[in-house]
Design a protein that fits this description.
The protein is an alpha+beta fold and 167 residues long. It has 2 domains: 96 residues, GMP Synthetase, Chain A, domain 3; 64 residues, 2-Layer Sandwich (Ribosomal Protein S8, Chain: A, domain 1), CATH 3.30.1370. Helix content is 52%, strand content 19%. The chain contains 4 helices and 6 strands, in the order H-E-E-H-E-H-E-H-E-E. The strands form 2 sheets. A 3-stranded mixed sheet has the order 1-2-3, with helices on both faces. It has a 3-stranded antiparallel sheet with strand order 4-6-5. The longest helix has 34 residues.
């Protein structure tokens, strides 16, 4: 059978599609930065099953993040729509500006780990503050690394939160 080479070819094709998504997004963002008169370096990468585009190095990039990442979320959605318009496929592209998402990921991962350890010691369930789906996923992933505890999401948006319980 030729299953392995075929799978390798499919994986290479997926990476090519993700690279194309990143390039389309990079072009779109470059034009947007020009219109806004912002400076920034655009970096393209592939992480797992998504293209990742980062804008770094420019002055005043925090304006593209906004308070609590609202502007960044909107900009990411606009970029995904630009990619979808060009490719005809819905994109899962992730956009980061000035390392904000990377920093947030590190912070939330540490929060999930420390809360899981507290639950493990006390045996008491712990409810975290409401979070976005992006934030909750990071916390769930961190909790999943700790044996003896698990997590679930409870509530309705925008008050949906992670709850950590002892197994």
């Amino acid at each position: 059978m030729t299953t392995e080479p075929r799978d390798a070819e499919l994986d290479a094709g997926d990476d090519d599609d993700l690279i194309e998504e990143g390039e389309i997004a990079g072009d779109y963002l470059e034009q947007l930065l020009d219109v806004l008169d912002f400076d920034g370096d655009i970096d393209l990468d592939v992480e797992g099953d998504r293209a990742v585009v980062s804008i770094d190095g420019g002055k005043d990039l925090s304006k593209l993040v906004g308070r609590s990442g609202e502007v960044l979320d909107a900009l990411q959605e606009l970029t995904r729509l630009a990619v979808q318009q060009a490719t005809g496929e819905r994109s899962k592209l992730m956009l980061d500006v000035a390392g904000w998402r990377a920093g947030k990921r590190s912070e939330l991962s540490a929060l999930g780990t420390s809360a899981a350890k507290r639950v493990l010691e006390s045996g008491e369930r712990e409810e975290l503050t409401p979070m976005t789906p992006f934030e909750r996923k990071i916390v769930h992933d961190a909790v999943a690394q700790i044996d003896g505890v698990s997590s679930e999401s409870e509530g309705a948006e925008p008050n949906r939160r992670v709850v950590i319980i002892r197994d």
